[in-house]
Design a protein that fits this description.
By secondary structure, the protein is mostly helical. It is 65% helix and 0% strand. It is built from 6 helices and no strands. The longest helix has 38 residues. The chain is elongated.
Length: 140
């Protein structure tokens, strides 16, 4: 992998980190990434620090952090506040575990309804469709 140059255009930055230009602009509008000054008659240039920041954002998104949480993490990173970052991560982990429990309940419900569908005859009302019509599906 080639090292990324330190004076990148927005297109080069986007390409270098595997996103599109509109993603970079979106991050700028959300306050996640600085918008470098435009020299008179010139184009904006991004640094290796900007590359690292976008990579951080994408990595945090893959971990399931929201953009608001990422914004908070970036501010914590600037002040090296590990305790606050750990607290945010612990809260996020709790949210992930809750979603997993909810997904498991959905999985069990769907599997049971699917099993009932497969056991039913061709002329019987489908248990899945019936459950959805009568709102008898247990939701998390």
């Amino acid at each position: 992998m080639e090292p990324i140059a330190t004076a990148l255009t927005i297109g080069q930055l986007a390409s270098g980190v595997g996103v599109n230009v509109e993603t970079i602009r979106f991050y700028q509008r959300r306050g996640l990434l600085r918008e470098p000054p435009r020299p008179p008659g010139g184009i904006r240039h991004y640094s290796a620090e900007d590359v690292a920041r976008v990579k951080f954002i994408k990595s945090a998104q893959r971990m399931g952090f929201s953009l608001d949480e990422i914004h908070h993490l970036l501010r914590l990173d600037e002040g090296m506040q590990c305790d606050a970052a750990a607290e945010l991560a612990a809260q996020h982990l709790n949210d992930v575990r809750t979603r997993l429990q909810n997904l498991h309940r959905i999985e069990v419900t769907l599997a049971n309804l699917l099993d009932q569908c497969r056991k039913g005859g061709k002329k019987v009302t489908c248990p899945l469709i019936l459950a959805l019509h009568t709102d008898e599906v247990e939701t998390p």
